[in-house]
Amino acid sequence: MCYNLVMHKIAVVIYGPPGSGKGTQANLLALSHGLIHFDSGRFIEFLLKDPRNAGDPVIDRQRALFEKGELCETEWVMDVIGRQTKKIVAADFGIVLSGSPRTFFEAFGDDKTKGILPLLQEAYGKEDVHVVFLRVEDKVSIERNSHRKLCTTCGTQLINNPELVNPFCPFCGGSLYTRVFDNEAKIVIRLEEFRKKTLPILEELPRRGIKLAEVNGELLPYLVHREIVEKSSV
Length: 234
Fold this sequence. Notes:
The two termini are about 15 Å apart. By secondary structure, this protein is of the alpha/beta class. The model has no long low-confidence stretch (mean pLDDT about 90). Helix 1 (about 20-35) packs across helix 9. A hairpin with a 5-residue loop joins strand 5 (about 150) and strand 6. The protein has a single domain (about 10-230), classed as Rossmann fold. The chain has helices spanning about 20-35, 40-50, 55-70, 75-90, 105-110, 115-125, 140-145, 185-205, 220-230; strands spanning about 10-15, 35-40, 95-100, 130-135, 150, 155-160, 175, 210-215. It is globular, with a radius of gyration of 17 Å.
């Protein structure tokens, strides 16, 4: 890895359908540009699985949506993600978000509520907020997600590796698991959720003067990373 730490803070938002490699690319940018990767999906999953939240009716409602492959309620997500993003901003770090904000309201807000993108523009400056879209075909998304396992300890993802004999993470040795929505039927639901609720954000960006870098997410990760850096000028 060639480290090219930026001399000023930036914010990067990475979008893409399920299995497009958002988390992988966010980690690569965090390493190469000295950013904090806020994995909102994993953070939400942690909240939903935390035994301390057992019996909380709001959490129970979000968990039911999550396990069906649907997006959690916008207002709840907005509150959770907004508060954590503000903490990173206040700590004076650059940030990379993988897959969040996921809905139009989360992204842009309204007259009463500031969306995540305006919040980032205010904190980092409009020219230093970069949005990336990882383009992959549905069949690739389904193939990647239906063969994916994650480490229970470090979150490392193992995708489509039939030669893996030991059911342990090669990085930290932790046990592996398959997420409840990583099966073909639920991936199809998640793809439709992405098209219906997240794609409108990307369509709105040009009208708001926000540049979007579209990248081929089906390449090897290091090539995707290289294309992101070149096309978004981060």
